[in-house]
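task queued by scheduler; priority normal; single chain, no ligands, no partner chains; default sampling; output format set to structure tokens
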Amino acid sequence: MKKIIITIDGWSSCGKSTLAKQLAKQLGYVYIDSGAMYRAITLYFLRNHINWLDAEQVNNALAEITLAFKFNNKTEQSEIYLNEENVEYVIRDLVVAEKVSEVAAIKEVRIFAVAQQQKMGEEKGIVMDGRDIGTTVFPDAELKFFMTADIAVRVQRRYIEMFGKNPNTSIDDVKANLEMRDYIDSNREISPLRKAADAIELDNTSITIEEQLQIAFKLAKEKITGK
């Protein structure tokens, strides 16, 4: 059976990674979280006090960064490693979330990340989520999804996620962060967030995670089998 590349793009807190993980597991594909790559780069910049407005500092920092995904048998998930350190949970902090869109908008950072992502997809059989996967990273992907949801629903989802990690998180902070990321993601000069012309839109405002997976899995099987 042939292998394909499946891309899942969309706004923050639309459940892109949830669907991508589930779909990859159902198909026996590799899941690659492109957002985690940008978060890991952001974490490195923050830890090492890199001025990301300085191209020389950015390029020097990127030369010191190694990113890899390793499968965790306990969690049954791929987790990201930054220079051999598992940073899967550290990168979910709000401090990183507040800066990741700024870092991801930098030309040198995107070139670095996209090159790595494309290499990961050379043998196909992957599901990758992000914001420019179907438009920039894999414009010829066989199946593309673009996910969206009502902003109030997205804020509530992210708040629940963040509150579990930091009870001091306020819903106003989460809303402000989402709105800021939406603006930066869709207005950046390099690879802005947009729906690919051939992407299938999935609005999950009013459907369950299970219903969403059923829709995506059916479309994937049709694309893979040609039926």
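post-processing summary
- The first helix runs from residue 16 to 27.
- The chain has a mean pLDDT of 93.
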